[in-house]
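During the reporting period, our protein records have gained a structure token line. A sample record is set out beneath this paragraph:
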Amino acid sequence: MAKKYTWCFLLVLMSIAIVAAHIGETAVPAVFIFGDSTMDVGTNNFLPVSQEIKADFYYNGIDYPFSEPTGRFSNGYNTADRIVKLLGYKKSPPSFFALLNDSPTFKRNILEGVNFASGGSGILNTTGLVYINLFATVLGNITELCGPAAAATLLSKSLFIVSSGSNDILEQQRSRAPLSPDFLDNLQSTYADHLRSLYNLGARKFAIITIPPIGCCPVERSYNGSECLQGANEFARQFYNATETLLQQLSSQLSAMNYSIGNSFGLTLDIMGNPLAFGFKEIRKACCGDATTMCNQTASLCQNRDEYLFWDRFHPTQKTAVLAALTFFGGSHRFVKPVNFSTLAAINIV
């Protein structure tokens, strides 16, 4: 038994050393990712969901290595991929179900992290809680493999990336229910429960990405003569402010909690306000498909994908994802605070 625990501690220390070579004195042995389709690296490939919330078909992945449609809702890599690469990893953690599908290596591979993000996932629907429960299962396996002390050490030094909330707004709109203060309170209360649950399971470093100006994505613009839906944007702004307050409160209550909040709302508005400065020429239309049809091999496809803000009717292009990752990882207080993701990762938790 002791040999098993010693081996696991050595793996954790080796992971820490490798990552520390890239980002100073930090120790990020694993990355755990939660959220929606902007972070999904193939979770929905394994789920019996509709084609509208799958991306395992062309043109998706056209700029991914070998033009492979991996299940990412993108022409290439997404924001999760790029943040993890900036941390020093060669590739992003696979989805939980992809790891589970390779059962002989499941326990060994989860020591470097797992992606639980899923297209269609939200805060209020049961998906948020489902993926936290799956993480609890992963924790059980890590504890069995390493022992309680090593498992606690690994999780405390790991980075937990969370990006959720956009689907809650879209579902509220589809139900023709108001984006009201009560709805926001319900979102925040449930979000707080989810973050507390992760903390109670051992998470200590939370990298939170908030909702972009969702009213400006192509499908939302289609309801308003190609202009942004300001009601949805105002709610996204309120969500950011409320989430910032929530994280301040939680960190004062949970003594070992450290966090960083990435402001997708402000960053995206800045890009749309001065697109040429960021290298974009088209900020309204989808590159693949259009505002009302999904991206697939029969859809229209733009030629200059790096000039488009949006890949499809909902999701950003790979270029947009890279820009967001760079901003949140190493950017200033304007778009990420109280510290950026690289500083958060470098915090030494004893």
